[in-house]
Amino acid sequence: MITVSDLRKVYQQGSKDVVALDGVSLEVPTGKIHGIVGHSGAGKSTLVRCLTLLDQPTSGTVAVNGKELTNVSTDELRNARRRIGMVFQHANLFDSRTTEQNVAYPLELVGTPKAEIDAKVAELLELVGLTKFAKGYPSQLSGGQRQRVGIARALATDPDVLLCDEPTSALDPKTTDEILDLVKKLRDRLNITVLIITHEMHVVKQACDSVSMLEAGKIVEHGDIEQVITNAKGSLASTLLPLPGDAPRVDGEGPILDLLYTGDQATQPVISSISRQFNTDVNVLAGSVEQLGEQQYAHLRLQLAADADLNAIVNHLKSTGIAVTVKGAK
C-alpha cells in the first residue's frame, strides 16, 4: 500500500518559490494499479521523486505498507527503497551488461550470494518472457524487450511497490499493450501495488483500477475508474470516453443530454426505452462504448424533442444509475 498525506514540494528559483506539489494526498491499496495523469509541468515527475525520497518533500508524509519514509535514518531509507521497484521511460539499462547481468545488478549491490542471484535472475527472466535473451545486450533487444528487462530488474529485490514513470511513452501501440498486459499479470501473480505515471489515457484505460489527475501540483480528480467515468462534471470522464464529432443539432429540437453509464446499463436500449416510455423522439448526436479493464462503459449525447418532459426523462435516467448532464436548449 502507498499512502501520501498532504505532500508539498517547493523549489527555490532565485528569490521565487516554485510550488511543484501542493498538498497531494492519495492512497493506493495493496494489489491495485493506480494511474497518475496530467500535462507536462503538472508535478508528476516531482511526485515520483518524492515517493522514493530522491527529493525530500518540503512537508507531508510518504508511507509504503505503513512504513513512513520521510523521517527515517539513512540506513532505514536505503532498506525501504529496496521495497520500491522503479521502471523508467527508457529502461536505463547498462549497455555493457547482458540482460541477465542487468537484472542481477540490484542483487549484487546488496551482496547477495551468486547462486541466489542466478536462481532469482532465471526466475525473473522466465516471468517476463526473456529467457532466450539472457545473454543478449541492450543494443540487440527491441524497445519492448528492453522495457521487460527493466521490469525484471525492478522486481529483483522483491518490492512491495512498483513505480512506473512513463513506462510506455517510447513504445509503439502494440508493444505498449503487451507491456501493460505484463504489468497486470505481474500484479496478479505477485500481489504488488503499482503506480503508473503517464500522460497517455490509453494506459489508464488498459491497465488501471483507479486514477488521479494532477494539475499545477494538486489532485483535481481522483477515484476508481467507474467513479471518474460516471462523474459527468469531471474532465476525466470525457477524456477517457471521448465522443466522436457531434452530429449537427436538429433545428427546433430541445435540450441536449450527456449520459455516462457502465456495466449492464451500457448494453441496455436506453434510446428506445425513452421513446417508448415518454412517447417522444430522441436524436443521437454522438456516442462511444469502450471496454476499460473488465468493465464496459458508454458515453452518449442525445437531443430531445422540444416538447419532451425533460425533468421526467432526467429523473428516470438517474433512477437507473445513469449520470446525466443537461446541456441546455438551443
TrEMBL record:
Coiled-coil features, chain-numbered ranges: none
Source domain of life: Bacteria
Any one GO MF annotation of this record: hydrolase activity
EC number: 3.6.3.-
Alphabetized SMART domains for the sequence: AAA (SM00382), NIL (SM00930)
Top enzyme category: hydrolase
Alphabetic keyword roster: Amino-acid transport, ATP-binding, Cell membrane, Hydrolase, Membrane, Nucleotide-binding, Translocase, Transport
Sequence ranges assigned to domain ABC transporter in this UniProt record: 2-241
UniProt cross-references to Pfam families, sorted A to Z: ABC_tran, NIL
PANTHER family, sorted: AMINO ACID IMPORT ATP-BINDING PROTEIN, METHIONINE IMPORT ATP-BINDING PROTEIN METN
Name of this chain's protein: Methionine ABC transporter, ATP-binding subunit MetN
Gene: metN
